[in-house]
Amino acid sequence: MKKILLLSDTHGFIDEKILKYVRQADEVWHAGDIGDLGVTDEIKKIKPLRAVYGNIDNAHARLEFPLHNRFICEEVDVLITHIGGYPGKYSMSIREELQKNTPNLFICGHSHILKVQYDKELHLLHMNPGAAGISGFHQVRTMLRFEIRGKSIENLEIIEFEKKI
């Protein structure tokens, strides 16, 4: 079993509220718009990190992290990218990959809107953790945490913080 903390759109911001949840996870996954590699450096000091770069990330982030990150966690095939869309409205850049080689779990960020939805057509679970940073239109900072046990994704929890620090 793996305990996963999923966040996105930190835009260079990390605080003790986020780090508290990092310490409780087995792995942390970041779905892009890191903003400053100091964010990922802080996370990596504490727990293993899997991440992708987002549209605001600079050349240093793009050298360290891929655009798409595909891997197996336990027995779950995971695909993470930053700009991915939603079931029925996937972005052109990822739609073909999802149809040809469908993962069990598809994760993206970018919208700053937390959304978890099962895609009945492709038979995958889609997650967007919203935005953990303080930049953007969102009013509440959000993250997700869950457990992966074999092929099962369990105990999904929404973590919310006030945007103002």
Question: What does the model show?
Answer:
With 165 residues, the chain is an alpha/beta fold. The strands form three sheets. A five-stranded mixed β-sheet has the order 3-2-1-11-12, with helices on one face. The radius of gyration is 14 Å and the shape is globular. The chain starts with a strand and ends with a strand. The mean pLDDT is 97.
Task: List low-confidence stretches.
Answer: none
Output the strand order for the largest sheet. Answer: 3-2-1-11-12
Mean pLDDT: 97
Q: How far is the N terminus from the C terminus?
A: 33 Å
Strand content: 35-45%
Quaternary state reads: single chain
Q: Total strand count, please?
A: 12
Order of helices and strands: EHEHEHEEEEHEEEEE
What percent of the residues sit in helical stretches (DSSP H or I)? Answer: 10-25%
Concise overview:
The chain is an alpha/beta fold. It has helices at 16-24, 37-46, 59-64, 92-100; strands at 2-7, 27-30, 49-51, 68-73, 76-81, 85-86, 89-90, 105-107, 114-119, 124-129, 140-149, 152-162.
Helices and strands in order:
Blueprint: E1 2-7, H1 16-24, E2 27-30, H2 37-46, E3 49-51, H3 59-64, E4 68-73, E5 76-81, E6 85-86, E7 89-90, H4 92-100, E8 105-107, E9 114-119, E10 124-129, E11 140-149, E12 152-162
Parallel strand pairs: 1-2, 2-3, 5-8, 8-10
Antiparallel strand pairs: 1-11, 4-5, 6-7, 9-10, 11-12
Descriptive key words:
single chain, 165 residues, alpha/beta, 5-stranded mixed beta sheet, 4 helices, 21% helix, 39% strand
